[in-house]
């Protein structure tokens, strides 16, 4: 479930600087509403960039790296 902060970040994703970070719910939404397990699989095989760890349970992804991954995905689909 996406919290208010994550929903706001998703809505404003294009306006975020490349150096900003977002949480897992935003990543899941960006890649088509994928599950936690699918995020893990795609991270392991390189389709989604590796996250930065915040403590033992929190991961965040850099916006610029996510944009590059999304661009590669779109280029591959064209």
Describe this structure in words.
The protein is of the alpha+beta class and 78 residues long. The protein is built from four helices and three strands, in the order H-E-H-H-E-E-H. The chain has helices spanning 4-11, 24-30, 36-44, 63-77; strands at 21-23, 52-54, 58-62. A three-stranded antiparallel β-sheet has the order 1-3-2. Strand 2 (52-54) and strand 3 form a beta hairpin. Helix 1 crosses helix 2 (24-30).
Annotate the secondary structure layout:
Elements: H1 4-11, E1 21-23, H2 24-30, H3 36-44, E2 52-54, E3 58-62, H4 63-77
Antiparallel strand pairs: 1-3, 2-3
Main attributes of the structure:
about 50% helix, alpha+beta, 4 helices, about 15% strand, about 80 residues, globular, three-stranded antiparallel sheet
Instruction: Note the overall shape.
Output: globular
The secondary-structure class comes to: alpha+beta
Mean pLDDT: 89
E-strand count: 3
Distance between the termini: 31 Å
Radius of gyration, taken over Cα atoms and rounded to an integer in Å: 12 Å
Number of helices: 4
Q: Which residue ranges are poorly predicted, with pLDDT under 50 across at least 5 consecutive positions?
A: none
User: Beta-sheet strand percentage?
Assistant: 5-15%
Order of helices and strands: HEHHEEH
Q: Roughly how much helix do the residues carry, as a percent range? A: 40-55%
Main sheet summary: 3 strands, antiparallel
- Give the strand order of the largest sheet, numbering strands 1, 2, ... along the chain: 1-3-2
A few lines on this structure:
The chain is of the alpha+beta class and 78 residues long. The chain has helices at 4-11, 24-30, 36-44, 63-77, and strands at 21-23, 52-54, 58-62.
């Amino acid at each position: 479930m996406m919290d208010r902060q994550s929903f706001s970040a998703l809505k404003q994703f294009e306006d975020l600087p490349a150096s900003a970070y977002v949480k897992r719910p935003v990543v899941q939404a960006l890649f088509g509403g994928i599950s936690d397990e699918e995020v893990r699989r795609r991270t392991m095989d390189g389709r989604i960039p590796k996250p930065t760890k915040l403590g033992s349970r929190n991961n965040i992804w850099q916006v610029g790296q996510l944009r590059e991954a999304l661009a590669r995905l779109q280029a591959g689909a064209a």
